[in-house]
Design goal:
With 138 residues, the protein is mostly helical. The chain is built from 7 helices and no strands. The protein has one domain. Helix 5 packs antiparallel against helix 6 and helix 6 packs antiparallel against helix 7. It starts with a helix and ends with a helix. The mean pLDDT is 80.
Length: 138
């Protein structure tokens, strides 16, 4: 029972952070000169105790294992985290922070593709996001 409680607590925490991150991004998009990545990454660090800059530097092939082994994340966690990365990357891209956006898009892509490989459902929204990321990374 304790493991289920921890899992639910982590999911609730991630879902709350997704909402906060989206709200922050929407507010920051309207304010020129604000560093979106700094604010978004700060929220993630404060809420989840995850250093996004560390995740951006982590080799691509080790990202999933890092999140699973070090943070105990499961599919549901990774799905929400991929959305946070995706929305943050979109905001960075629109704000002209192209190189930073590409790094964050790459991490979102890894998580989205992992979801596609391991889940039985095939989410159209996820496929569209993967295609968008691939176009932007070219």
């Amino acid at each position: 029972m304790g493991q289920e409680d921890l899992f639910k607590k982590q999911l609730d925490q991630l879902a709350l952070l997704l909402g906060k991150t989206l709200t922050t991004i929407l507010q920051l998009r309207e304010k020129p000169g604000i560093n979106i990545s700094e604010q978004s990454f700060k929220s993630i660090r404060e809420e989840l105790n995850i250093d996004v800059n560390e995740l951006l530097l982590e080799p691509s092939d080790k990202l999933i294992n890092l999140l699973k082994d070090n943070y105990g994340y499961q599919h549901e966690h990774l799905n929400i985290l991929s959305e946070i990365f995706y929305e943050t990357a979109c905001a960075l891209y629109e704000n002209g922070e192209i190189e930073k956006a590409k790094l964050v898009f790459e991490r979102a892509l890894i998580l989205f593709e992992f979801e596609n490989k391991t889940k039985k459902d095939l989410a159209l929204e996820r496929i569209i996001k993967i295609q968008k990321i691939n176009r932007l990374l070219i």
